[in-house]
């Protein structure tokens, strides 16, 4: 099953229309990942901050299946390289942020011996899976949702700028391209952060 939809992320100076596909993370869907990612400009990987196992699954699946391509020990390597998936930026998003402030949820977690995912835990996973950033949000309270959409739009915009830089690289091989990418990235942050 996959759900698709669109959203608009508007900042003070730039508006972006995002097409978002919500795909399942179950093992039986893993063979379809490359097809879903074929035209992606950004991959947003979500987990619940109220369920540590969901964060562990993120790291296990990505390091075990996707990031292993860098060491050439996976059957995914042909598919991923064929579709050029190694360059897709990843964002890690902790969902259900509102659970941490819910007294009933805190009591239930305490009684069950489970813990909420701490932001520093998720940041560590984000670093290990080479995610561009880690964010948290709550669909229930809408806390952080705007920031997630803005970060997606920023990541896609910077990626488009990097594509321009790659095209310019054919003309300019003396190191100037890196500074152009840096300037475009800084410009994008100014657009999105106001």
From TrEMBL:
Keywords: GTP-binding, Nucleotide-binding. InterPro entries: P-loop_NTPase (IPR027417), Small_GTPase (IPR001806), Small_GTPase_Rho (IPR003578). SMART domains: RAB (SM00175), RHO (SM00174). One of its GO terms (biological process) is small GTPase-mediated signal transduction. GO terms for molecular function: GTP binding; GTPase activity. Pfam families: Ras. It comes from the Eukaryota. PANTHER family: RHO FAMILY GTPASE. This is Neuronal RhoA GEF protein. It comes from Coprinopsis cinerea (strain Okayama-7 / 130 / ATCC MYA-4618 / FGSC 9003) (Inky cap fungus).
